[in-house]
Amino acid sequence: MTTQTQGVTDEIVPVHTPSRFYEVHVGRNILQTAGDLVARAAGGEAAAIISDSHVAPLYGDCVRASLETAGYRTTLLQFPAGERNKRFSTLATLLEQLAQAELSRRDVIVALGGGVTGDMAGLAAALYLRGIQVVQIPTSLLAMVDSSVGGKTAVDLDAGKNLAGAFLQPSVVLADVTCLHTLSKELFVDSCGEVIKHGVLADPVLFAELEAHPITSPHYDDADLARIVARNVAIKRDVVNADEREQGVRQTLNLGHTLGHAIEAASDYQLGHGSSVAAGLCCVTRAAEALGWCEEGTGARVERVCEAHGLPTNTQLDCDTMMRYAVHDKKRHGQTVNLIVPTAIGSVEIRTVDLDQLREVIRLGCGKQ
Ligand SMILES: NC(=O)c1ccc[n+]([C@@H]2O[C@H](COP(=O)([O-])OP(=O)(O)OC[C@H]3O[C@@H](n4cnc5c(N)ncnc54)[C@H](O)[C@@H]3O)[C@@H](O)[C@H]2O)c1
Ligand SMILES: [Zn+2]
Question: Which of 4, 43, 68, 255 is an S-S bond match for 340, by CB 3.0 to 4.6 Å?
């Protein structure tokens, strides 16, 4: 006997940006009703689901059936999973397939998967016929709390990650936390780096909750996870709302990333992005405390939370290596870097530091000198 599980929408986070209004629905088993939500938000007659080779076999049929029940003609386009496929060659294939499926300007692309899928399907939507609508259905924790909100899309170049892209806000985002059941524990843990970052950036209550119980613990059921995902979405929403195209305050989302990117690149991308961000976050917070920029005790609290989630709190890289990778960061402006510095749990400031000050931050913040 098969039983149809009833979908539950736990929270709807509205997102207003200068270019579009859309909603982020966070819930349980909401993939089954995706079709209605897509139809309401995007309309159109045809829907092309873009998904990768891991996620399509897990959730492709369910989303497809739901879209067809809502009246869509559907196509499921699948590309090989993995960051190394987030490239122009994959994008070009997808664009040709969209044309073969005869998608018109009124139709919709449904991005079903992690951040790689969301970025590439989003860019395909921005380019195809000079722009059609995209719906984001994030299935990884990282995609739910970070990449599906904000409208950034990109592919990687040989010269670096995310160097070619466009801004395109989705028509709606559907985050079904029950999808997280099939995500590997390793990827779930890694993405907690970004969740902790959001707490340090803007939410002492969220941070205290993570402090009391890591989200990797059985303390949380799916309804709790939905609430936490929704909170993370709201934090990112608030920052992006204030600054859609990253001129100012949006930079604060890079908390932990200047040193984190250096740690990630120096590991030749063997260390996960979220783990690298956690280590970078701990380093910058320790340095900020040592320099008197941050409330005393903050560094130890951030370290404890990262450790409890199974994330690294430091790097063994020496100062010269860290500097070499940190100054290659694309966010650098000439001889200065805009460093995001916590001032307490829940608040940050943007400090423009020169390269000598950056070296001092690394010396004070990182383990090996
Ligand atoms: N656009 C933005 O604002 C933004 C922000 C942050 C990160 N990103 C991008 O996001 C990407 C990283 O995202 P990611 O970690 O989701 O990577 P990913 O999309 O590669 O997903 C990681 C792996 O998990 C698998 N997966 C996803 N959901 C699953 C599920 N429910 N069950 C089983 N397997 C599942 C995928 O197939 C893949 O193998 C990077 O390319 C990064 O540049 C973009
Ligand atoms: Zn990040």
Answer: 255
Q: Given CATH 1.20.1250.20, say whether it is the number of domain 185-365.
A: no
Q: Do 230 and 13 form a contact (C-beta atoms < 8 A)? A: yes
Ligand 1 atom with the smallest distance to the CA of 191 is 15
Q: Kindly list the domain boundaries of the chain, sorted by start residue.
A: 8-182, 185-365
303 within 8 A of 313, measured Cβ to Cβ: yes
Task: Say whether 185-365 and 8-182 share the same fold.
Answer: no
Model confidence at 369, pLDDT cuts 50, 70, 90, reads very low
| pLDDT tens, residue by residue, 2-26 | 445 789 999 999 999 888 999 999 9
From 24, 30, 51, 54, mutation site for ligand 1 pocket: most ligand atoms within 8 A of C-beta? 54
pLDDT of residue 240: 84
Calculate how far, in angstroms, residue 44's C-alpha sits from the geometric centre of ligand 1. Answer: 27
- Check if the beta carbon of residue 149 is closer than 8 Å to that of residue 237: yes
Q: Which helix (H) or strand (E) holds 171?
A: none
Contacts of 279 (CB under 8 A, 6+ apart): 259, 260, 263, 271, 306, 311, 312, 313, 314, 315
Q: What are the tokens at 40?
A: 């309401």
Q: 161-179 pLDDT, tens per residue?
A: 899 999 999 999 999 999 9
157 and 163 Cβ atoms separated by less than 8 Å: yes
CATH code of the domain occupying 8-182? 3.40.50.1970
Q: How far is the CA of 280 from the centre of ligand 2 (A)?
A: 11
Q: Which ligand 1 atom is the nearest neighbour of the CA of 190?
A: 15
Q: In angstroms, what is the span from residue 257 Cα to ligand 2's centroid?
A: 7
Among residues 285, 301, 273, 274, which one has the least CA distance to residue 193? 274
- DSSP states of 279-320: HHHHHHHHHHHHTT-S-TTHHHHHHHHHHHTT--------HH
